[in-house]
Structures are given as structure tokens and as C-alpha cells.
Amino acid sequence: MAYKITDACIACGACADGCPVNAITEGDGKYEINADLCIDCGACADVCPVSAPEA
User: What domains are there in the chain, each with its CATH number?
Assistant: First the structure.
């Protein structure tokens, strides 16, 4: 199951920079994860300062 970014996102971009498959893009007010590209590695959750990405 792909990770999802919650409303806790502060749009800092750390998750996008940490994603090894470039599955994260800037959305409307928060970043979004493309479920088709996400490999469920958790790298985004590891670098997020507010724990917005969740499995």
C-alpha cells in the first residue's frame, strides 16, 4: 500500500527530495504521492519534520 500525505503537511518539500522514485509532487497546499509510483519504502516519512506521510 502506498504512503499518503496527511493534512499535517507544511509543504517544505523534504519528502519529495527524499523520494528515491520521484513519486512525490507539490499539490494544492501540500505535497502528494503518486500511488502508482510509490514503492512503500518509507523514505518520505523518515525525512518529514512533521510526520505527514503515513502508510
Answer: 4-54 (3.30.70.20)
